Amino acid sequence: MKKGLLLISSLLVSCSLAAQTIDWLPSDDTHDYQGIALSANGRYIAGLSKATASGFVWDTTDKKEYLSGEENGSILTGVSDNGIAVGYDTYDAPTIIDITTNQTSVIEEGIAATPYSVSSDGKVIVGYMTGDDGNVHACLWKDRQRTMLPEPTAEEAGLGGVLGTDAKWVSKDGSVILGNIFEDMYGQGWPLAMIWRLQEDGTYKPDCIYSDFYDVESNASKPYYSFEAAGISDNGKWVSLKTKSYGTYQGQTALNPDRLARMNIETRQVKECVPGNGLLELGYITGGISNDGTVVGAINPNNRQAVIWKAGEASARTLAMGHGLMEISELYNSAAIGISADGRYITGFGKVEEGASKTFWIDTKGTTNGIANAETTAKHVTTSVYDVDGTFVGSSTKSLPKGIYIVKTSGGKATTSKKIIVNK
């Protein structure tokens, strides 16, 4: 039985900065993009174009868009390294778009199903379909042929009852699939992370990875009150999770807000993000995960700020301050959704004052010419300088007081940000 418990909040302060480059997808009356998936190689972004009521794929190299069909209400939720994207439309028809031919088609006729993502090589599509029992059930498609994934019984799952499964993410070679099993919680499904592993005979075997961590009885006998899937690394080693762990408040057992978490599914070790870097613990939304275990997401579901939780670090940090990307701080309700396999590229979206969505694409290893040279020789480049609190202090790096600053340079559609330290 799930019991209502108090939520814990805390505030810790610190700051760390690094240089990045950022680019923006078009944002106007005909381009209202919400980027919700990034290919493993970081080249393609897929999602929803609210302006055209259709799914889109954006090629960050060629700066070109592909639409899944105007006014069909489709959303694209996964995209491969060669630009094959999958999703669903208004009628829950499983949809695929191939940008090499710019053709959109239904993967399988006559069913209500959601193909949620596709392997980076484009060969395996995973998702779920609604069964005769009214519940969703995990499946995959290879060469447009559907296979239902096996589901554990309630006894095998260690649960009082099971209300179906879903499959949402898949590793590069299709050897590991991540999704959820739904615990029967008073007739409602409570999602718990599970995986399926490819066997030598070509079948998949379910693995309830939550079993050592999730507290079925809700008496704090195990560390987590919830343990929900959020993403899988391309190498199939890591999964990102949305967790809610137990803590104490005024000497009583209580619940922490939702947090980012990562699990090494080879060692079965789970690490939960802890408050820090100046972030209020107001709850997290978890996004994708890279091959080294770096997780992206957002903090505070009611007023989101995009965050990144790097591998090896205890706490997340905002993209805006933690990485010198001041433009993201100008958005409201921003979230980082996808990260490339090597951790170099990040995508997500937020809102602008007019209410339209604005999608960003970050190159964390982007380079820039010297700031001083940019100011004096490149007239098309504008410079903005911020202190570590995010306050604008001027448009020149000259005569700055001693301290740490973020210098943002903008030219055309590209923007770069760089940390400088003034010691004079």
Q: What's this model, at a glance?
A:
The protein is globular, with a radius of gyration of 22 Å. The chain starts with 19 loop residues before the first strand and ends with a strand. A hairpin with a 2-residue loop joins strand 2 and strand 3.
Explain what the structure shows.
The protein is mostly beta strands and 424 residues long. Helices cover 4% and strands 49% of the residues. The strands form seven sheets. It has an eight-stranded antiparallel β-sheet. A hairpin with a 5-residue loop joins strand 19 (224-232) and strand 20. Residues 1-18 and 368-380 have low confidence and may be disordered.
Strand order across the biggest sheet?
28-29-30-1-34-33-31-32
Mean pLDDT: 85
Distance between the termini: 62 Å
Largest sheet: 8 strands, antiparallel
Structural class: mainly beta
Question: How many strand elements?
Answer: 34
Unreliable stretches, pLDDT < 50, 5 or more residues? Answer: 1-18, 368-380
In one word, what is the shape?
globular
Helical stretch tally = 4
Mind telling me the C-alpha Rg?
22 Å
Q: Helical amount among residues, as a percent range?
A: under 10%
Classify the beta-strand content into a percent band.
Answer: over 45%
